[in-house]
Amino acid sequence: MHEIILCKLGEIVLKGLNRHSFEMKLMSNIRRRTQRYGKFKIYSRQSTIYVEPVEETCDLNAAYDACKKVFGIIAIARAVPCAKEKEAIFATAKEYLGPALLAAKSFKVESKRSDKSFPMGSIQLSQWVGGALHDAFPHLTVDVHTPELTVYLEVREDAAYVHGPAEAAAGGLPIGMGGHAVSLLSGGIDSPVSSYMIAKRGVQLELLHFASPPYTSEQAREKVLQLAQELTVWCGRLTVHVVPFTEIQEEIRRKCPEDHFTLIMRRFMMRIAEDIAAHNECKAIVTGENLGQVASQTMEAMACTQDVTHLPVLQPLIGMDKRDIVKIAREIGTFDTSILPYEDCCTVFTPRHPKTRPTVAEVAEAESALDIDALVREAVDGIERIRIDL
Ligand code: ATP
Ligand code: MG
Hints:
With 390 residues, the chain is of the alpha/beta class. Helix content is 39%, strand content 21%. It has 14 helices and 15 strands. Strand 7 and strand 8 form a beta hairpin. Helix 3 (86-96) packs across helix 5 (122-136), helix 6 (190-200) runs parallel beside helix 7 (218-235) and helix 8 (246-255) runs antiparallel to helix 9 (261-279). The structure holds adenosine-5'-triphosphate and magnesium ion. Adenosine-5'-triphosphate binds next to helix 6 and strand 11. Residues 184-186, 188-191, 208-210, 287-289, 293-294, 296-297, 344-346 line the site of adenosine-5'-triphosphate.
């Protein structure tokens, strides 16, 4: 039996005039994510994208799992096409869903008919196929409210399709449709989740990581690259820009009051992020900040951090509970890596008594002994770019 994948479009269907470009982008994202699993024909009809294997050797299971993680698809199902005749539809349902029908106690049939020239109405078709399946599997009872198994029939332009229940897929919008942003990726739990959440809104990310060797170790760096690798499952291929941050941190320690240390450091992160943004057509900076979590995440502290950039700073986790962030981290597969115990540049040189209610003027004064432009330039010049493939 020739199984194919049906991808149901999510919010794209609300896109009106732009819808065509959203669909084109989504199809090209699907193509890129599935190509390693063989040759597939990918096309769209009536709010559904079809992914059809064209070679015997195609790995449909792997392609299905990959499609499930492509943003823009809200639900996904495997289906089998057949001729648009009631007998063929019944025979296909009987064979394809036979094992599931045997295992279930109750079922119903639900039909959709977008080909209006099909001679039966959808209720009529459901009744006819339902009756025939009932005869073939007499142990089943029909339950139209809470059936154990629903058999779906779709009569479309080119064929009829039979499938079991669809599974939830990634949701969101196709990557690339929301523009580009720089996302600050530490080795913690939060920033992989914030990166995922913004990518899910259709944004292509440039990942930025600040490393302070020898204060931060090679393992800490590897951990961040591993997190980036885990994000490619959702985001596709990514680039990590690794910024040498040691000199800036040492300079701050030498020349600035200790209680402002973290804030000054975070302002440098923003300035460097803005520079990367300018060179990569990025229109925003993404961070994993969360209100009240640490001293640098009070409203006053964030005002000081964001004061040095003109770009919007997107903080998708700002109002979430840690518990809910952890839940997402587990679901997207980054949690286990995030909890590996390696240090971050934010955790070296932490002040004993950080300022929690700073003012912009105070921080500007505290960093006035530094040659800010030169430090930023030197760090940017030393950036190492690492491509992370799927
Ligand atoms: P996370 O769990 O993401 O590390 P956090 O709760 O530890 O966050 P902070 O250390 O205050 O919070 O960092 C806030 C945000 O700043 C992070 O979510 C991340 O976006 C960014 N950030 C922190 N350290 C780094 C780093 N070394 N490289 C890149 N971005 C960083
Ligand atoms: Mg952290």
